[in-house]
Structure formats: C-alpha cells, structure tokens
Design goal:
The structure holds two protein chains of two kinds. Helices cover 79% and strands 0% of the residues of chain A. Chain A contains ten helices and no strands. Chain A is globular and about 65 Å long. Classes of the chains: A mainly alpha, B alpha/beta.
C-alpha cells in the first residue's frame, strides 16, 4: 500500500515535470470544465442566494431546507437523470449535447448550484444587520442596501464560489455519464483516475489524484487568504 | 452615490461573467462543430477497452480515414442500451445471446465476429476446492460443494456485464440455479468491474471468472497471486462481435462510417493487429482474430466451437440483418 503511494508520488512528479500530454490534456480539461460550470452556476446562484439571504418571504425555510438537502445529491444519480434528458431519444436529444464537454459543464453547474446558493445565503445572512440599517439611514433603497450587504459578505461569497468549483472538479458521476470519458474530448482528471484504476494502473491513478489534490489545495489556500482579509 | 458606484461595478462584473460564458461557449462549439472530421461513437465493453486494444485500433484507423472514433467504455448491457437510445453508432460486445435479441428487435445490423479468447476460472494457489485440471462443470460443482462446507468462496461481477452473463450461463451448464446459489453465503457479488472484482477475489482467496486480458495484466503487475485453474474449453469461449446500429430503426446514426469501421476491423491489417496485441509483453495472445479462422479453417475445433456458440441460424449474421452489405460476408 505505502509502496504504491510513494510510487504514485514519484510518478506524479515525473508526469508533471515531463509534461505528459495525456495528463496535461485531462488537467486542462478538468480546469476548463469546472471553471465554466462554476461561472454558469454563479450566474443564477448568486442572485438566488442574494434574494434568499436578503428578503423575508413565505416558505423561506422550506426553500433553504431544499437547497441544503440538495447538497447531498449523489453525482451518479444526477448524472443518470441528465443522461436520460440529453440522450438522443430524450427530451433534449435534439441539441446533441451528450458526450461533449458542454454536457459536463451543464451537469456540474446544476450539481454545484445548491452549494453556491446555500453558501451565498449564509454569507449574506451573517452580515451584521446594522450595516444594512446604516445604509438605509444614509438614504439607500432596499436593493441598494442588499448590494452593500453583498459587498460586506464578499469574502464569504468567494468561499462559496471556490467550494462550488472544488465540488465540480472532484466529482466523477456526471463527467462519466454525460461525457463518456472519451479520450481527447471528455476525459477529465476524475474519469482518468477511475479508468486507470480499473485498468490496474494504480500508480498512474495515484499520480492523477495527487495532481487533482494539488489544484484543490492551491485554490483552498487562495480562498483562505481572501478570507483573512 | 456609494451605492450607485457599487451597483455599476456589480453590473460590470455580471456583464463580464456573461461575456466570459458566451466566449467560452462559442469556443466549445467551434471546437466540435468546426472539426472537419466525422464522428463515430462506439459503445463498448470494459474488458476490451481496459486492455488498450481499442486505442491501438483507433490510432491505426484514424490515420487512414477522416473519421474520429469515440469509445464509450461501459458494460455490455449498458452498451446495448446506449445503442437502442441512439447514443451510439456501433457496439463492440461479447454476449451472443444479448446480441441476438439486439438483432431480432431490429436495433442492430451487419454483425461481424472479430475476435475471440477464453475466459479463465482463477483461484488461490492452494486451490482449496481442488479444481485444477478439471473441466468447468466439475470445477463449479466442487466449488459449490466446498463453498457450502465453508472451505471455498466465489466472487461474482454481479453487474450484468458480458462476463457476468457468461458466469450465469456456466452455473446453468453445471446444473445449478443461479438465483438460488447467489443467496448462499460463499457466493459474493462485487457489483463492479473486472479489475476490482479480481482484486477482491485475491484478497479473499476466492475463485472468480475473469477475462484473460484483465487477469494477465493484474498477474503480470504482481497485484494478485491468483492462478489460472480452468481455461481453453468450449464453455469458456469468449467471442467479440461488432454490430452497427440500424439506421432504419434508430434515427440519425452514423451508419456509413460504422460500415467503414466494420470493414476496417475485419481487414487483414486490423486482424493482425489484434493477433499481435501485447503478445510480447505477456508471452501469449490476449485476443485471437476470427475472420480468416472462420473462412479458411472453418473445420478446426475452435471454429466449430465459435459456430456452435456464437452463430445465429448457422451464420454470424442472418441474411435479413445484413442490410445490403453482402461484401462484409464474402
């Protein structure tokens, strides 16, 4: 066991240093797909989080509870549902999205929406209400006061974004079901790890895992820097 | 005033975000749509893909034709399901009974048998059930007996794959009811791929059924100590076929390129590639080609076995499922 991990570490270094084309390809695709998914998810999650965090409305608890529950959705299950939707004989089959990176992007964007929404909501809610009140006394309207709250909550919102990205880059089920793990087209780090594991190339699997971990680690580190500020 | 500036900045940020997404989306579409090469999606079984054979074939094929092959590596069951839904143009599988249904249901045409090898029953070196040297029937009977006595274990894929279907057929052959024995405590279903199953069998010192490719890879890499107990007999025959998805039944499949690929698979060039694939590494062939065997040495024992096991009505593809491509069967 330890031998495989040490060998994996060595291989990881070797692969990174030598710039192995397959590894670079999968790494960049992982980064590209998860970044796009995160951007896309922000597009609707940030406004949603702002609304839920700022406004009082009927059923707010239920909505918040729903997003919190969706945090735990199994990726393979969501992948299967989306596969059936995107399949040629499914309702969205005409768009021919199955087995493209776009399909993975859409799927991951949906997957991380609950994280982005929930984290943004709590970030907004944790802003001292006094700040909003102060803005209002200074003549700000309700929506302007919300924006002030967003500015206050910014470091935590950023945390929400990075957490979403981490979830996207480390998930397997959606990339496998919607992308099909096609070499040179939809093969990302997680699907490569799964494939190399079934192929019995454990060192390579460990090496890819280490690369994935490094990406996530560096991002978490950056997020923490922001948080401190 | 402060709020106004903030609003403007947020507006700017949102605009940038939208722009970034549009640009990347355009790039993505260009990346696929703009490619001049045509796409052929092949749904295939893991045991074939995991050996690396298909990548070798892909490389050769793509250097000669303006067609990109995309392999989706899943189990035989899932491969067939993909094809029925129109999500694949071609399937490469190893389950004759499921293939026959696929043809008779009207989903598949132009079936060709392209390769074969043998499954192996592997087990711990000590061979607690004493099956080494016995035939499949005896071996399985002994495993059941010793399993019930608590001396042997069996690990099954249990995932509906081609290998799993084969295993079920072997239990039937040996006179056991699979739905009954799967409930017994010595029978373990891993519910996962061949690699993980063979590792599990090794950890548990159990017997299992494996394709030869996966076994040799794991054994060669010294990941397992399991030894081959039973091999190379008719019941363990493993036949790989290619079937095109019927364009008359499933809309909008790439049938033309599917036929081109089938022709390539049965060409001498590709058949030689199959025969020599990793032969030096393992000092034995992982796959044996079938085209010449069935044509020129059709009286040999193995050819007879293949015919009995994987032919439908005396042929690899009955006339009505040939879709006017007689040249494939000359």
């Amino acid at each position: 066991m330890t031998q495989e991990i040490i060998e994996g570490l060595r291989r990881a270094l070797e692969l990174i240093v030598s710039g192995d084309p397959a590894v670079i390809d999968a790494t960049f695709r992982s980064l590209y797909v998860s970044t796009m998914a995160t951007l896309l998810a922000i597009l609707w999650s940030l406004p949603l989080g702002l609304i839920i965090g700022n406004k009082e409305f009927f059923g707010k608890r239920v909505v918040k509870g729903l997003f919190n529950a969706l945090l735990g959705i199994p990726t393979v299950g969501l992948g299967l549902i989306l596969y059936l939707l995107l399949s040629k004989s499914g309702p969205f089959g005409i768009f021919r999205l199955l087995y493209t990176p776009t399909a993975i992007i859409l799927g991951e964007a949906l997957l991380i929406t609950p994280i982005a929404v929930s984290f943004t909501t709590s970030a907004i809610e944790s802003v001292d209400p006094e700040i909003r009140n102060l803005a209002k006394t200074l003549g700000a309207s309700e929506s302007e006061a919300s924006l002030v709250a967003l500015k206050e909550a910014f470091p935590n919102v950023l945390l929400a974004i990075f957490a979403s990205f981490n979830r996207a880059i480390s998930e397997l089920g959606i990339a496998l079901m919607l992308g099909g793990n096609i070499w040179g087209l939809t093969r990302v780090l997680t699907t490569s790890i799964a494939l190399e594991t079934t192929r019995g190339n454990f060192e390579l699997g460990i090496a890819l895992t280490i690369i994935l971990f490094l990406i996530v680690f560096v991002l978490s580190f950056i997020t923490n820097l922001f948080k401190r500020e | 005033m402060l709020c106004f500036a903030l609003k403007k900045r947020i507006l700017l940020w949102s605009l940038t975000l939208v722009l970034a997404i549009i640009v990347s989306a355009t790039f993505t579409t260009y990346y696929f749509g703009g490619a001049s090469r045509r796409r052929l999606i092949v749904s295939t079984t893991t045991s074939l893909y995991d050996t690396g054979l298909l990548e070798a074939i892909e490389e050769k094929f793509e250097s000669q034709y303006p067609i990109d092959i995309y392999f989706i590596s899943v189990g035989t069951g899932q491969a067939i399901e993909h094809a029925k839904r129109g999500d694949a143009d071609l399937i490469l599988v190893h389950a004759p009974s499921a293939e026959r249904t696929f043809l008779t249901d009207g989903y598949g045409v132009c079936r060709k048998i392209i390769a074969y090898n043998f499954f192996v029953i592997v087990g711990p070196q000590e061979d607690p059930a004493g099956i080494k040297g016995h035939g499949v029937k005896d071996a399985l009977t002994k495993i059941v007996k010793d399993g019930r006595d608590g001396d042997a274990l069996w690990v099954s894929r249990g995932d509906g794959s081609g290998t799993h279907l084969k295993e079920k057929a072997l239990w039937t052959l040996a006179g056991f009811n699979w739905t009954e024995i799967r409930k017994e405590s010595w029978y373990i279903e891993s519910g996962t791929g061949m690699g993980k199953t063979i590792l599990m069998a090794d950890e548990m010192e159990a017997y299992t059924l494996s394709d030869i490719g996966t076994y040799l890879k794991y054994y060669g890499d010294e990941r397992i100590n399991l030894k081959v107990m039973v091999s190379e007999e008719k019941a363990l025959l493993n036949v790989y076929s290619v079937i095109a998805v019927n364009p008359k039944q499933v809309h909008d499949v790439n049938f033309e390129d599917a036929i081109t690929f089938i022709k390539f698979l049965i060409s001498d060039e590709c058949q030689n590639l199959i025969a020599n694939f990793k032969k030096e590494t393992y000092e034995q062939s992982l796959f044996y080609p079938t085209v010449r065997l069935l044509k020129e040495w059709s009286n040999s024992t193995v050819a007879q076995w293949i015919k009995e096991f994987a032919y439908f009505n005396g042929t690899e593809c009955p006339q009505e499922y040939r879709d006017d491509h007689p040249e494939l069967y000359e």
